[in-house]
Amino acid sequence: MIRIVTDVYYAEAERPDVWMKFPMVPASGTLTETDEHDENGWLRTVKLEFRIGKPAPCLQGNLLLEAVFCDRSRLRIGTADLPVRLKTERGSQRNVSVEWQTVLR
Q1: CA–CA distance from 30 to each of 19, 50, 68, 90, 95 (Å)?
Q2: What residues are paired with 82 via a beta bridge?
Q3: ∠ at Cα 71 (70, 75), nearest 5°?
Q4: Are 74 and 68 in contact (CB under 8 A)?
């Protein structure tokens, strides 16, 4: 399922109570969730991609993310035990992406 992401917030894994908003390019965010089963059980893979128009202060390090969708629902990506790391590509805009996996219970 692909969902339109309107905003992305981040917190450093070491400071999970301080959230900041990425300077996203409007209508540039997408999120895909894939569930698959293997011999160990169910695994969910979350792929988030968005663009930012100017450098953001926190593109490196261990992060927690929160994606906000056009219907105002939200999804947290990453945990204190299993934070995410961003992949960035530089061009006229910065492309930011992350892939995160978690076990479904």
Answers
A1: 20, 7, 10, 18, 12
A2: none
A3: 85
A4: yes
Q: Helix, strand or coil for residue 102?
A: strand
Distance CA 80, CA 54 (A): 27
Q: Please, which residues have CB within 8 angstroms of residue 44's CB and are 6 or more apart in sequence? A: 33, 34, 35, 101, 102, 103, 104
13-37, pLDDT tens digit by residue?
Answer: 999 999 999 999 988 999 999 999 9
Counting every residue, how long is the chain?
A: 105
What φ, ψ does residue 56 adopt, rounded to 5°? -105, 150
The pLDDT tens digits of the residues spanning 40-58 come to 899 999 999 999 987 777 7
> E-assigned strands of the chain?
2-12, 20-21, 29-38, 41-52, 63-69, 74-77, 87-89, 94-103
CA distance 1 to 60: 28
